[in-house]
Amino acid sequence: MTMSLGRSAWLIAFVGVVALKVVTARITDIVLFGDSYTDQSRAHSIANGTYPGKDYKEVYPPADTAADGGFQWPFYLGLYGNYTIWNYAVGGAVCSNKLTPLSDIPDVSSGQQAWFVQDHVVRNGTSHQKLLLDPASFIVIIFVGTNDVGVNSFVTNDQGTNVSLPNVADCQLDTLRQLHALGARQFIVNSLVPLQLTRLYSDSSDPTIYYPSPPHNGTVWHRTIFNLVHSLNRILRDGVRTLDTEWGGGGSVQWFDTYGFFEEMYNHPARYFNGSVPANVTGQCHQCPDPDDWRQCGIGDCTPDERDSYMWWDELHPSEQTGRNLAAEMHRKIEGKSKY
Ligand SMILES: *[C@@H]1O[C@H](CO)[C@@H](O)[C@H](O)[C@H]1NC(C)=O
Ligand SMILES: *[C@@H]1O[C@H](CO)[C@@H](O)[C@H](O)[C@H]1NC(C)=O
Ligand SMILES: *[C@@H]1O[C@H](CO)[C@@H](O)[C@H](O)[C@H]1NC(C)=O
Ligand SMILES: *[C@@H]1O[C@H](CO)[C@@H](O)[C@H](O)[C@H]1NC(C)=O
Ligand SMILES: *[C@@H]1O[C@H](CO)[C@@H](O)[C@H](O)[C@H]1NC(C)=O
Ligand SMILES: *[C@@H]1O[C@H](CO)[C@@H](O)[C@H](O)[C@H]1NC(C)=O
Ligand SMILES: *[C@@H]1O[C@H](CO)[C@@H](O)[C@H](O)[C@H]1NC(C)=O
Description:
Structural class: alpha/beta
Strand order of the largest sheet: 2-1-5-6-7
Bound molecules: 2-acetamido-2-deoxy-beta-D-glucopyranose
CATH superfamily: SGNH hydrolase
Number of helices: 10
Helix content: 25-40%
Order of helices and strands: HEHHEHEEEHHEHEHHH
Number of domains: 1
Radius of gyration: 22 Å
């Protein structure tokens, strides 16, 4: 009896030491930069007149819905991992407005980073800065590129004459270097998703709400976007490895194969989609019957019960259920348990 009590006391003490180690290394905060694939409602807030959104607090449904028709994946990541989420992503954003200008929306390399600095870095002059977050306690996730390579940019050959994919990749890597200089030490770069699977970049030449006119050649877009996504992903992945080596333990950057994970969902839909109709990875829930009139969008949508059956919410954006799946996999990634 005494013996067994002593043993459990020892066990508790031992477990206590192990738990302490885990606690000191625990990730408590996630910082995100990106576009509408990640934004909860900053873009809406800006459109609503609260630009530049410094004191903006995330608005969640039913007050507002993200580009996935509901809660965006960082919300679920926060839920699954008990993380505090700092989501600086804005719908429509690119890595750099100087490289691939589409709008004045705060970009990942400057405007979004400026928000991060406002929230987390104390500066009292040019040379002194202090990061308020513990570098061991947070991870930065960058997930951008869809707009950089998309319509009115590379896929339609509208990029600047002196702008190439390596410039776009370097923009992401330089953003990591800047955040590293501010004191951040742990990063994940998400690859671009298989955009050729979306309605917008399918091989159909039919107009869509995101490109109602002029007429385009769907076959050409479909093939071009495939090449762009693969090329940018390859350059980024190699760059991430180089940067990880460059920091030599004074920082770590991991690659998340979002492309591979989306392919997995596409190829095994029944494992991932659970609405009231059979899983659907080719169509989308949200309908825009007249591509020239966005006010008609919503007519013919799937029902709320059916939503989670769809991989795509609309002609470009993943669904909320795809976001839950991504969040769950990203949580595994952060815990070192993901193969992506
Ligand atoms: C838009 O502005 C209104 C009025 O200020 C506010 O109630 C609402 O929450 C804002 N919506 C968003 C998405 O910021
Ligand atoms: C969630 O995180 C907070 C803050 O880091 C912590 O106080 C709380 O104990 C955590 N809850 C669980 C269930 O782990
Ligand atoms: C700024 O911070 C540095 C480092 O903490 C300190 O040495 C310096 O005196 C500060 N300068 C001002 C103007 O507060
Ligand atoms: C492209 O040219 C413009 C105008 O000359 C210049 O401002 C910009 O820096 C150049 N971009 C690159 C990536 O070289
Ligand atoms: C689209 O482009 C492909 C490849 O260049 C060509 O074979 C096809 O005829 C074009 N389709 C139309 C409708 O112009
Ligand atoms: C589908 O699964 C997710 C978890 O991935 C769950 O949160 C959601 O409520 C489920 N949807 C339905 C319609 O059961
Ligand atoms: C998938 O959804 C679309 C609606 O976007 C529908 O037209 C199509 O028939 C569905 N496919 C299957 C296999 O259910």
